[in-house]
Design brief:
It contains seven helices and seven strands, in the order ααββββαβαβαβαα. By secondary structure, the chain is α+β, with helices and mostly antiparallel strands. The protein has a five-stranded mixed sheet, sandwiched between helices. A two-stranded antiparallel sheet has the order 1-4.
Length: about 200
């Protein structure tokens, strides 16, 4: 179901009134419609199936060397994403690093980006987001292992409470062969994220 923009506008007016504001004053008059447009974009992934982006695969054995299969991981680094924390509806944003060990079939790299964007475009917590990305890739691609590292800054940390503007959160989700910390050490090094490396040291 698509975002109900009319309802978002109505509720935004109520929210502004609830905090003691006048939704009809010049600076706020367009805010309800702007919020409806924003929410339609930010939560576009609520009813979207991330697996749909992985349906079209590419055979790697049909080429100059038909008996050759990939021997190493496919790593896509620094996918920028933004999401909304479901606890306070404040934004969090950062980068995702995805790796998988392909079999005979691979997927276009843009499809991996779409998986991240779809799952991030809904109320989320970072820990679950990483696990959902890993599950989507592991369940719908021909793969022997999946690794997802997310490094993000959260509005609920930078804007409220302790107000730590430089604090970021790193999460790691692994499937298949990459559940072995030794097997994913090379990838963590390639990602080059100091936060991810320190996380691995604690795992």
């Amino acid at each position: 179901m698509a975002v109900d923009r009319e309802r978002v506008e109505r509720l935004t007016r109520e929210l502004l009134e609830a905090i003691g504001e006048d939704p009809d004053r010049p600076g706020l008059k367009q805010t309800p419609s702007r919020m409806a447009e924003l929410y339609a974009e930010m939560f576009a992934g609520v009813d979207e199936d991330p697996a749909a982006h992985l349906a079209r695969t590419i055979s790697v054995t049909r080429g100059p060397a038909p008996d050759t299969l990939p021997s190493g991981a496919v790593l896509l680094r620094d996918i920028r994403f933004r999401s909304v924390c479901e606890h306070h509806l404040l934004p969090f944003a950062g980068v995702a690093h995805l790796a998988y060990l392909p079999g005979e079939q691979v997927v276009g790299l843009g499809a991996l980006v779409k998986v991240v964007e779809t799952l991030a475009s809904r109320p989320q917590v970072q820990e679950r987001l990483g696990e959902q990305i890993a599950d989507a890739i592991a369940e719908h691609l021909d793969t022997r292992g999946v690794l997802v590292v997310l490094d993000a800054t959260h509005g609920c940390v930078t804007m409220r409470g302790g107000r730590q503007p430089f604090a970021s959160t790193v999460t790691v989700a692994a499937r298949g062969e990459f559940t072995d910390p030794v097997a994913r050490t090379e990838l963590i090094t390639l990602i080059g994220a100091s936060g991810a490396a320190s996380h691995e040291a604690r795992a």
